[in-house]
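<amino_acid_chain>
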Amino acid sequence: MDPLSRLTIVIPSYCRPQYLRRQLDFWAGSEASVLVIDGSPTAIGGDVLIPKNVSYVHDPASFTMRMSNCVHRINTEFVAVLGDDDFFSPSGLRDCITRLDAEKGLVGCVGRSVRFFYQDGRILAEQRDPDSTEFPSTVVTGIDRLMSTYHPGKIGALFYGVYRTTAWSDIVRATYSRSFATGYIYDTVIRTLVTYRGPVGIVESVVWFCSSENPPVKDAPGMDRHVGFLDWLRLPENATEVRECEALMIDDLVRCGADSREDVSRAVRFVLDELRRRYEIKEARHDSHAVRVRRVLMRRAPRWLKRFIKRLIPSSMGQVVDWAVVELDDLTRRLGQKGITVDRNDVDKIALAVRRSHEVKISREN
């Protein structure tokens, strides 16, 4: 039996019909079940063929409501969330399930990830979060893990992997039980609730292909990203909401664990305080004179000039100039040389899907 038959892939979508069509084509015929929850004002066109393994739900409610509502639709042992313009490697997902079968104490499993975008007929890519590692063996309990949340090898984009459905559903219900003024806080809530419940494993396989083809959705109902995380923390009018967010996490962890409210509260406050400190450091760097000057120059440089300069940089100079983006095929070959498993058939299928979608987009524009 294909391990993917035990998996549901949840794809939230909002106003990206061309990328949603790409997903439907990509997963057609897969053993995995696919659940699309489309929050766009209008449903996808009636001319679009929905594959047998895909359940398409048009639910123009807020993102928080859509995520909460989708939980009861999942009846497989495992679940994974995927952005509507991203891809999973089916082979990588199988590796995650294999490890979860072997290690019952894991709440979830992620793999190595690649960020990609399409430019001038090429698919360019770089590895995301190459330094991600599992917690050290000395980190054992839920409180230990929370107090070590920001260890040097912190897993980036923690939720883009395979999770046990029971734990995932519990986490999603709690996380999206209410809306907050900034969409940036949900990742922190999810990470906190996941981290406490159990360790997350890492397989040395490329699993997630993260798309940079589109800017992040900032105005989807229930997922407003116009308010930055620091602004949300600092503005007096958000003080009550910040406390309620903290209480939401504490209440959930006290409910599902065996630790005292005092210990859980201390750990949750550590997570939020440390995150705030890191954002403030990032803000200071972002506002430095050198960064501002470089940003202005990059904004004013013609697009053709930026692309021309990038093409002139030899791949051998990548580390010297901190330019890590290369052709997708080159990147996956290098990852394979490092001992990371890359399924060539999956990469070729992803590359074909990306090229076709952009060729269609270009032909429509012309």
Summary: DSSP finds 14 helices and twelve strands in the chain. The longest strand covers residues 108-119.
